[in-house]
Amino acid sequence: EKQPCMPTHLQKPLIIKTGVQFTTKVRLLVKLPEVDYQLKVKTTFDKDLPPGRVRQFFILTNNTKVMDIEDYSNGCLSVEFRHLQLKEKKYINGTKGSEGLLSVTEELHSLSFEACFTVQGLTIDLETCSLPLVVISNVSQLPGGWASVMWYNLLTDEPRNLAFFGNPPRANWSQLSEVLSWQFSTFAGRGLNKEQLAMLGEKLFGQHASCSDYQVSWSKFSKENIPGKPFSFWMWLDSILELIKKHLLPVWNENYIMGFVSKEMERALLKDKEAGTFLLRFSESHLGGITFTWVEYSENGDAKFNSVEPYTKNRLSALPFADIIRDYKVISDGVVPENPLKFLYPNIPKDEAFGRLYNSQPSKGKRTIYPYISSTLIPISELRPNASTTPPSCQSPQPPMTPGEFDVLCFDLSDMNSPYSE
Amino acid sequence: EKQPCMPTHLQKPLIIKTGVQFTTKVRLLVKLPEVDYQLKVKTTFDKDLPPGRVRQFFILTNNTKVMDIEDYSNGCLSVEFRHLQLKEKKYINGTKGSEGLLSVTEELHSLSFEACFTVQGLTIDLETCSLPLVVISNVSQLPGGWASVMWYNLLTDEPRNLAFFGNPPRANWSQLSEVLSWQFSTFAGRGLNKEQLAMLGEKLFGQHASCSDYQVSWSKFSKENIPGKPFSFWMWLDSILELIKKHLLPVWNENYIMGFVSKEMERALLKDKEAGTFLLRFSESHLGGITFTWVEYSENGDAKFNSVEPYTKNRLSALPFADIIRDYKVISDGVVPENPLKFLYPNIPKDEAFGRLYNSQPSKGKRTIYPYISSTLIPISELRPNASTTPPSCQSPQPPMTPGEFDVLCFDLSDMNSPYSE
DNA sequence: ACAGTTTCCCGTAAATGC
DNA sequence: TGCATTTACGGGAAACTG
Question: Model confidence over A170-223: pLDDT tens digits?
């Protein structure tokens, strides 16, 4: 019979996309007394799934079963499976299972490994399996997958509780906020500070005290929409993470993006600063948008706050953000256009902050191809005299998390790579 | 034995990409005397290829072989194969064939259909096959594929000369230019006029008389690079066709793009026109670029011509071309920026020509999301006083083609669809 | 080293399923 | 009908392969 091995070590639980190759490696931790013959390891996906599961997958490539021992890296045997690919097993029996309660990214799967060998007349079966895996079919499901992985790692130490999302526990904000910050520091190179986390907490809990440690439900974190918005808290936050990764990395890493600031806080900060002082803030109303807000003073000394329509990935791929800040102009009726952005909050001269980050030269540079006049895009806003501006609401909270530690024995599922594993 | 059928009718020879689905339909033209049993048709790809062929493909899907009669549309039997997919047959025997002379898009393939039935004790084998097909593995090979299809259609009536590109004939410019114009009228809605074709002829033949009917070799048409350029004549022309299809359709269809004009001709046309008169021309130095050139006069009355750096698909997807024309500004040292484009050659006021084609309102319109100031991109050129401009060379020729007609008999390969068949 | 060719796979759009 | 999920495949880039 099967000799169940102790669980398995996996740094980063994974998200696997059907049809996309992934790699996994298993290591035998016990030293076998001179096993000469070829030791075969078989990988099986969704091996022990309870029947009636909604979706079930299998490994498409013929690498499914047999593999011989290869590496003697640090004295122990290991196998690496490459080019594995998942495909859905259609119509397991009749129709799909029932639990239509869970969404695709809440459904947890696993990859099993088996081997069998004989030592001194003893037949030994080894078996181990990975931490829970999320299977998606389109990259558009990645954010949902990440949410699941985070929640699982944060809230359980069980190595393979595939039913975790049947009744997921709540998270303390102190834990959750730490994980969120960790996401930013891992993927964008800089985590979230206290003020930024406070704003996120306010978004989840409202204006309540940021001192007590509220609990967040899984649903509130990633399933329910934020009141009045067509997306959940995590979808919103992840869209920002993506925006940073693709378009704002240097600016983010220089800490020039305050980012998570309520509009009320924003005004409080800018009020009384020098005219032309601005700060950068992520849009709360649209996914993956960033805007800048600057302060001006009318003749009677009243502060006036202006924000541009948030820039999203499409706009930013046409023009890098630093260049937008450099070149932004406001036109008011035939006057020579002027850039209203002068000082990055609290008081850093714009070019001093962003100078190194500017890309295309202010139009002239950029080796002009001989007969042509070079041309760049300039972001402009046209203000009509009667333009009134009055921004809306505000919020604030704080963070912690520690990924589970996993034990190791016979098998060490030491590494598993898919494009989505970090 | 096989009863070879007469060739086959195929409106549009095809380009098929491996791994991408295509559809084909075969029709039986003879009325069978009450065939009750199921008539099976088998499709085979690259059935009779000479061995040693460089690449060989097969139909991946299990739809490969059997299909029963389905449609009685207009009284005749037909089968439609859907979701067919091609995959390369690797290592036919040992290494690939030898003829490394032909490029992938010059290699012609074919799709065969076979059926067998018995009438009144007579066993009849039917067989037919498609016109030559080009197989590609990436859309980046499409332009090359189109070139082959055009050349084949233009220069032979043979239904399946798979060795056509072993020694491809030359084309008369009178024929070729007609095909080229036809490409534009088919895919972009408007063909090429005499002047445009004359410029293309000059590009191929130099300044020579455009009256005599020069011949163009296949190599010169699509394989050799244009002297001094890193692309062939067809690659260049096709890049423009693509640019039009994706970004310039309305402007092209309104006939506002002169497009194919040598720089010399351009100057001759603009000289003496009112200041601010401009015309639109495709870049000859870069793939898929369009520029505008306008005329100005210095104080002593000398004409001065300016062209912007050509806009390519990336820029145009950030900002539609009509809007670029509307908003383009030139800045000279602190002066209020001005749009130098006033009249579309010969003398149409800019807004009269392009007014209907403008997209985003001149910034203001576009329902501004409440607290935000809307913003648009404006293309600008910054001129320094010492900017000198002097454009280069010029050329000119003319067009004709008629796709072959194909005969029909037993089988009528009536239709064949792939995403690339028009 | 490199050029021609294929593979890989994201991200959008469309199709499908429920 | 609408939403959730999958499929399709263009397009850019990496990997392959002689």
Answer: 999 999 999 999 999 998 889 999 999 999 999 998 876 556 678 999 999 999
Euclidean distance between CA atoms B303 and B384, whole angstroms:
18
Tokens of A28: 């035998």
Q: Is B120 left (phi over 0), alpha (psi -120 to 50) or beta?
A: left
Cα distance between residue B222 and residue B212, in whole Å:
22
Is pLDDT at A417 greater than 60 in this prediction?
A: yes
Could you write out the DSSP letters of every residue in B332-397?
A: -TTSPPB----EETTTEEHHHHHGGG--S-SSS-S---TTEEP-EEEEEEEPPTT-----------
Kindly provide the residue ranges of all beta strands, DSSP E only, lying in A200-259, ordered along the sequence. 215-216
CB A173, CB A202: distance < 8 Å: no
The whole-angstrom separation of Cα A54 and Cα A95 is 9
Distance from CA of B42 to the nearest CA of A (A): 28
Helix (DSSP H) and strand (DSSP E) numbers for chain B: 10, 22
Q: How many CA atoms lie within 13 A of B357 on its CB side?
A: 24
Residue A73: predicted pLDDT: 54
Give the residue whose CA sits closest to C18 at C1'.
Answer: A100
- Mean pLDDT confidence for B41-45: 87
Q: Which residue has the tokens 């002829």?
A: B201
Cβ proximity of B259 and B282 under 8 Å:
yes
Q: What is the token pair recorded at B288?
A: 């898929």
**Which positions ≥6 away from A65 have C-beta within 8 Å?**
A40, A42, A43
What does the pLDDT average to over A399-417?
36
Task: Output phi, psi for A238, to 5 deg.
Answer: -65, -35
Cβ distance of B381 and A373 shorter than 8 Å: yes
CA dist A136 and A118 (Å) reads 39
pTM: predicted TM-score of the whole model, two decimal places: 0.84
Q: Which of B363, B371, B387 is the closest to A307 by Cβ?
A: B371
The four Cα atoms A382, A384, A385, A386 give a dihedral, to 10 degrees, of -130
Residue B48: predicted pLDDT = 78
C-alpha A8/C-alpha A405 separation (Å) is 10
Widest CA span in chain B? 96
- Taking the CA of residue A135 and the C1' sugar atom of nucleotide D18, their distance in angstroms comes to 37
B104 CA vs D17 C1’ separation (Å): 15
Q: Which nucleotides of C are covered by protein (CB under 7 A)?
A: 4-13, 18
Query: Looking at the predicted structure, is the pLDDT value of residue A409 above 70?
Result: no
Question: Which residue among B317, B364, B379 places its CB closest to the CB of A375?
Answer: B379
Lowest mean pLDDT among A49-53, A386-390, B340-344: A386-390
Looking at residue A255, its amino acid is N
Residue B393 contacts A where some CB pair is shorter than 8 Å: no
Q: For B208-233, what is each residue's pLDDT tens digit?
A: 655 667 899 999 999 999 998 999 99
For A269-294, write each residue's pLDDT tens digit: 999 899 999 999 999 999 999 999 99
B303: alpha, beta or left, given left = phi > 0 and alpha = psi -120 to 50? Answer: beta
Instruction: Measure CA A373 to chain center.
Output: 42
Which conformational region is residue B325 in: left (phi greater than 0), alpha (psi within -120 to 50 degrees), or beta?
A: alpha
| Residue B67 clears pLDDT 60, i.e. is over it | no
The DSSP line for A72-107 is: -TTSS-EEEEEEE-EEE---SSSS--S-TTS-GGG-
User: Chain B window 354-383: which residues touch A at a Cβ cutoff of 8 Å?
Assistant: 362-364, 368-383
Rg of chain A in Å (alpha carbons): 27
Range of lowest pLDDT (A208-212, B36-40, B82-86) = A208-212
Return the residue in B377, B386, B390 with the most chain A beta carbons within 10 A, the one to mutate for interface testing. B377
